[in-house]
Design brief:
single chain, 133 residues, alpha+beta, Alpha-Beta Plaits, four-stranded mixed sheet, 4 helices, 41% helix, elongated
């Protein structure tokens, strides 16, 4: 078959979501991708040795265009807007270069801020208990 052979290529939504997720995770200041429930499921997946690169990413893929929605957690004290802009740029570049689709829209939801050293499990309960003694 020659390189000029006719045919079609279909790219699954999951492929574009993975490309977007990988690109977003590589941006400095992105602590994680996805909201609380999505991150909890991701933690379980990681515990058994699996990883979902498309976690926290929703995409719509057409024949020549793509749009993406991402939910991210940003490291404190970085500029939330700058990190979101950097994610938008990185995801658009990755989808265009690796998948070959025109990116028409990338929406970023910053669902949380990560503060290093803050543990949500027991520290808050201990602090509350000490206040009421």
């Amino acid at each position: 078959m020659s390189s000029d052979a006719a045919g079609t290529t279909q790219i699954a939504d999951g492929v574009v979501a993975k490309v977007a997720g990988i690109a977003a995770r590589q941006v400095p200041g992105v602590h994680s991708i996805g909201g609380g429930a999505s991150r909890a499921v991701g933690a379980l997946r990681n515990a058994v040795g699996q990883q979902d690169h498309g976690q926290g990413v929703k995409v719509e893929v057409g024949e020549t265009q793509a749009a993406a929605d991402l939910s991210i957690v940003v490291d404190y004290p970085l500029s939330v807007q700058k990190v979101a802009d950097d994610v938008r740029r990185a995801v658009a570049d990755a989808i265009t270069q690796l998948v070959g689709l025109e990116v028409v829209e990338i929406n970023i939801e910053v669902s949380d801020i990560f503060i290093a050293g803050q543990d949500d499990d027991d520290k808050g309960d201990k602090a509350d208990a000490q206040r009421v003694q």
